[in-house]
Amino acid sequence: MSCVAPGLDAADGIMPPSATLSWPQRSGAMKRTGNRKLGRSLSIKALEDEGGLQQPEFISRKSGDFPVSLTCLSAVANMQDNGKFGEAQQELEDIVSGSKSRREMAMACLLLGELFNRWGSCSQSYSIEIMAKGAMYASRAVQLYKEDDSDMDIEFRKFSLYWKAINCASVASLGGCNTWSADAAMQEAEIAMQEMSLTRINSTPKQVMEDGGYQDFVHGMLIYCKALGVERGYFTLKDGKDLNSLLLESLQMFQDSYEKLIASCGELNNQTVKTVTMISTMNKMLGNKEEAIRWAEKEVHLRNKLHGDLNVRTQIAKKKLEEMTGIQEADEAEEEDDPSLYGSSLIDPSEIVWSLNPFELTREYKINCILQMFKCSGLSELFNIPEDRLLRFVLKVRKSYHEENAFHNWKHAWSVTVCGFLIMQEIGAEKFLLPTDRLAILIACIIHDIDHPGYPVLNVLEHMHWSRGKELLSEGCDTDILVNTTAEQRKEILDQIYEGIMSTDMQNHKQIVKEMEARVEEQKSYDINIPRDRVELVQAIVHCADLSGQTLEPEVAYQFGRGVMEEFHIQSQREKNENLMETPFMKGLHKPLAQAKAQLGFLHYVVGPLWKSLAIIFPQLSLRSERIEERCSEIDFEKLDVWKGKHEGLQNMHVEDLFD
């Protein structure tokens, strides 16, 4: 159910916490921080150059018991050194809403533009909303600084434009937001980049070189975000360009930026390190593994020297390097599965039923079930899919799921695929859907959670699953099971796969249920001749299949339910351990009552209405809806000792055990 945020491997960042520092601690943090650490923040570089706290306007006004200027710098200290993003956000937003000083408000908006970018760079709860906030605050800072032509404000304005360009481009790469469409957001980014290039005051040759490094970095980020937008279907390329050429162009800009920043700032500079990060990222995307690893090693070395080994960004860089080297070693050492163990003929179609238990079946049996689904549905023959190629595709997908995940793993993906297949079988999907739609449903079910990290991220993960799955279906790839389709068929199938995967984003749940309930109210069936009807049915089937765990046999339903609660509990414990903002509905799940409330809420308010609507439209599925009602009826808050769905093990899972 549910890529990394665009460019946000490149930005320093930490997630928002829940803890609050007292004023004496805040003063101490400021004292320990000193000029060297504050200098790491792009947003306060100009303030430092102008004397920092010596600016009279910043130290003259009081807010509560301490100067607002100290609040600004305290917020920066929290962003930079302490990982107190939530506190930094609160301090800065208080200034935006309560200050009568244009300069204070502009500084707070500028820092908020930076804060939300850093939050997005490594937050498990990253979403388009976070990036949009960063873009809007940076835009407001730009406007406030335009109102004053002093040298100080021009310098600050340059940094506001920097964050506006990067944040707007990131919004564009994710498809836009309520304020800007993807095209409008990218246009805002390009305008900000252009204005940034014109924002200079009495620059020395060294400053010109440094400005050029920043400018090339922003340009590289805009091209990179455009490439992500193209890959996700938000932009189309013109002038004969392709995705690869965009990535190469972006890489070149980052390399140019690196050379200029090395010459003007040296290696031990935060902006230089960001450029190193993006050079590694671009090489990875282009398939240059050795170069990607070399630059990733450089990033770890530099971040360690700049920030220390325990810094959040250093740890993220180390983890990324480990993943890169691990992938390379796995690619080199991976042994081929024995093909004699697999084949559609090893499974009879009659064996594929709702009562199959993914927790008991062998790996080979589950793979063979999928091969048989493609065969007995007629899709393998209709689209001339070679079984050896289909096998390679399924094996590669299976290996791309993380079995250490308690829920979002291959067992879940396989079960979703079986359910998607059985829904189509029982409703006679050929009467409502074209063969391309039915093939898309099977593929979408298989890959809908590919490479899932085991925690929920709104919208972004679905794009990543789509991107990873589409890679395996790329023309020329030995896992491309669409190899014998026409260009028109390929496009139709890929478009519907995309719709299916996006339907598993829980942000789309209400809309899908609303559309189904409208059909029930109007007694309107799906029409195979109406394209929108086919899209809606593809979305409904994949979404219902994704949320089918509680429609299955009781023991299977209990086990899937425990898996979800375990993932939520682990995330909550991690948030608590790392002093982050805790997700409310994930807190306290080691307690049976909290588990029961969470599960009953999910059954009654989420999955119940979804499956009830589907069962009214297609009565053949009424038993699935009844199973959900059975699971609901078993939950009695006064008799939790007999509830079979609770996860006893969560009571023994503690922060120190999970994250030593």
Automatic annotation (TrEMBL):
GO terms for molecular function: 3',5'-cyclic-nucleotide phosphodiesterase activity; metal ion binding. Coiled coil: none annotated. Zn(2+) 1 binds at H412, H448, D449, D546. GO terms for biological process: signal transduction. The keyword Translocase does not apply. AMP binds at H408, N409, W410, K411, H412, D449, D546, Q599. Signal peptide: none annotated. This is PDEase domain-containing protein. It comes from Guillardia theta (strain CCMP2712) (Cryptophyte).
